[in-house]
Amino acid sequence: MTITCYSLKKTDTDICVEFANIVQWAADNAMIVNVDKTKKIVFHRPSVRSSLPSVITGIEQVVSVKLLGITFSNTLRFDEHVKNILTICNQRCYLLKCHKGQGLPSAQLNIVFGA
Questions:
Q1: What tens digit of pLDDT does each residue of 4-54 get?
Q2: Residue 48: Cβ-neighbour burial (10 angstroms; 0-12, 13-18, 19+)
């Protein structure tokens, strides 16, 4: 189970209270929040360095996060996401090239490609 919690910089909502509510909800529903896998990302303009003190103890701040298959960076640029997609494409092209080199017919290559 993945939970995503957003909080604005200027808001009346305290992120510590929200996180405590999530932990309580998980406990009420017989689940546990794994703090070791919990990450915090602060989105900001590329020209501004932003690092908020970790008000929730034990939560690591990261510069990028993958959510629903999309890699978000803290500057909301998609360079890392595009790089990941191109890496996957290159790996799959290499796989098809290897299978073609081993004599796999075009019909079977199409099946591998579709899979």
A1: 777 776 777 777 888 889 889 999 999 988 888 888 887 877 776 655 555
A2: exposed
Cβ-based neighbour number of residue 19 at 10 Å: 20
Which residue's entry shows tokens 């993958």?
66
Do 112 and 93 meet the contact criterion of CB atoms below 8 Å apart?
no
Do 56 and 49 contact (CB within 8 A), yes or no?
no
DSSP character at residue 61: E
Asked if 44 contacts 51 with a C-beta cutoff of 8 angstroms, the reply is no
Q: DSSP string covering 22-59, please? A: HHHHHHHTT----GGG-EE-----TTS------SSTTP
What type of residue is 71?
T
| Secondary element (H or E) of residue 67 | strand 64-67
**Six-digit token pair at 102?**
């081993």
CA-wise closest residue to 44 among 67, 21, 6, 75: 75
